[in-house]
Every structure is written in structure tokens, then in C-alpha cells.
Amino acid sequence: MSEFSFPAQDTAAMGAEDVDLGKARDGDNGAFTRLVTPLRRELHAHCYRMLGSTHDADDALQDALLRAWRGLARFEGRSSLRTWLYTVVTRTCLDVAETRGKRALPVDLGPSSDHAVLDGNAPLADVAWLGPYPDANLSGSQAGPDARYEQREAVELAFVAALQHLPGNQRAALLLFDVLGFSAAEIATTMNTSTTSVNSALARARKIVAEKVPSRTQQQTLRNVDDGRLRKIVAEYAAALENGDADALVALLTDDVTWSMPPLPHWYHGIEAVTDFAVQVPLTRCPSWRHVPTSANGQPAVAFYLGNDATGPHLAWSITVLTLRGEHISDLTSFIGPDHFTPFGLPAALH
């Protein structure tokens, strides 16, 4: 994973911030809202990286901002308000992570299956599953191209999944230093520890992440794929499922493709196993598919809706995130469940 950091708050806004800060300390909730609104998206993305769940990120950010509002009198201005808010948010996420545990994908639970599993593949409710992240939650057009690139790189599925293998303190140190650009001394203050401990945590975290994240990020891959070609890949993949066309699907996949479907525990690796699953289940046993293109975790994605027939309503089924290698799909991660659709602003059904 390349090292990247997001820019600090525009200094031109600092005068207005100082005025609002004084008002907020006097109990003006509107002033506090004006202070935190420009930072909400980046703070929310930080919560997602820490916790691996959009819903947990929602709860953690709400709790953290409440803590910040109640503790604003303790903010002495020794650091920027942004830095102080990241301290509050990070500590809140560490509390949540300690109580809820790390998020997982099916590949973390056991070996792949070499053929379609039709029985004994019920959803596992006792596993905290990693979830997808809507790109719309990232900072918008006010960020320059390089910043938008870095924001997407920092929420890529492989990176967020790798973070879940780190203890909370290592996860926080890595994100604050490598992603957000805080110094080791600032991180030590945030985490109530020493710079030596921070540097040690960083070294261990980088080693684990390097073992689990591909050397080439999805943003690097996608920059070399023409936008028109990318839209074509997504459309052809969705059409293959909708038309029950196994040959068209296989033509889009790498030989070592993987397909996983949290919260289902079984997953498939290799073109033969993936093809067998596709033919046995989504291409033949699912009566009718419809889709809406979207994007998640800085990657192309497809929202799929399943219906009993082509003419009836189709209900929200899964958000499938595509990972590319070159111009072929190397990983399919289908996050099953209608609860994933709301954060993406997608309807619960297509009629």
C-alpha cells in the first residue's frame, strides 16, 4: 500500500473557525455543527477503516461527535480542531472495536470450496462481517484529483480487510500515520502512549498489511483502464448473470478468480470452482436478476436485485464489489443483504 495523506483544513477558513469555536464553547450547537460539517465525510471514512462496517461507522461517528460536543471546553487549541476531533473519533472507534471484535470475510474463516455448496451454506449470524463502503461517502468535488485518488485507495477492500487483522492500537497507528499524515508524537498523544510504542506498532502493522495487500492497488489498475472499457466490463458482468450466460461470465474472469458472499461462509477460488458455483446457483437457480451500477470501496460495483420472474418486483439482494487485474475480474465479493443498500442511496426494490 503506498503512503498517502489527506490535506489539512484550508487555513483561509481558520478565522471563521475561531469565531464559531468561541460560540460553540458557549453552548451554540449551530456553531459546533458548522465546525464539524466540513470534516464529517473524512471522519466517517476513518471510522469505516477502523471498524469495517458502514453501520458501525455511523454509530461511532455520532457517539464521537457527541463526546466532542460535551468535551469541547477541554479543547485548549494546542492542536488544530481537526487533529483533536480525530483523537476523539479514534478513541471512540477503539472502544467500539474492543467490544465488537474485528470484521471478517469468508476467506478468513477457512479454505475455499472446489464445487458449488448447495446445502450447509446458511448465513453465519455469529460472525461480524466486513461490509462495503459507498464511494459517495468520500469527500466530494472540492477535493482535487490526487486527493480523491488517495481517498479511494485508502478504502479499497483488500486494504480495509487487511486492517481487520491488526489489533486496535496498530490499526489506529497505521491509519493516522500512513493515511492521514499525523506525526508519531501526535499519535502518541491520541492513544495515550509513547512515540516508541507508536513506532513499534507501525512497524508491526506495516509488516502484516504488506503480506495481505496486493502490491498494485486498485486505483493504480483502474487508472490504466479506459472509463468506457470499465463500464463495459461492469455491464457485461451484470448481463452475463441476467442472461444466464456462463461463457460470457467466464470470459471476464482471471484463471485464479475468487468469489465470496458474506454472510455465507463458503467461497470459491479458481475458474473451475467459480464456474461451477455460477452455473449451479446464480445463473440457473435464481429466476430473474436486475442491476444498478454503483461504486464501493473505490472500486466498480453492481447492486443486484432478485425477482421471482422478469415482470414482477425485484428485491435488493447484494452489492457485488469487483476487483480487477488488468481488464479482467480477479475477485468478486458479493455482500448479501438489503441492509447494505440504504447507505448507497439505492431503493429496496425495482419495479
Automatic annotation (TrEMBL):
Q: Which domain of life is it from?
A: Bacteria
Q: Does the keyword Plastid apply?
A: no
Q: Does the keyword Protein biosynthesis apply?
A: no
Ranges of residues in domain RNA polymerase sigma-70 region: 35-97
Alphabetical keyword list: Sigma factor, Transcription, Transcription regulation
- Record note on quaternary structure: Interacts transiently with the RNA polymerase catalytic core formed by RpoA, RpoB, RpoC and RpoZ (2 alpha, 1 beta, 1 beta' and 1 omega subunit) to form the RNA polymerase holoenzyme that can initiate transcription.
Entries under NCBIfam families matching the protein: PRK08241.1, sigma70-ECF, SigX5
Question: By its UniProt entry, which InterPro entries does this protein fall under?
Answer: NTF2-like_dom_sf, RNA_pol_sigma-70-like, RNA_pol_sigma-70_dom, RNA_pol_sigma-G_actinobac, RNA_pol_sigma70_r2, RNA_pol_sigma70_r4_t2, RNA_pol_sigma_r2, RNA_pol_sigma_r3/r4-like
Residue ranges annotated for the RNA polymerase sigma factor 70 region 4 type domain, each copy included: 158-207
So what family is this one in?
Belongs to the sigma-70 factor family. ECF subfamily.
PANTHER family with a match to the protein in the record: ECF RNA POLYMERASE SIGMA FACTOR SIGG (PTHR43133:SF65), RNA POLYMERASE ECF-TYPE SIGMA FACTO (PTHR43133)
Domain SnoaL-like residues, every copy: 234-329
| Protein name according to UniProt | RNA polymerase sigma-70 factor (ECF subfamily)
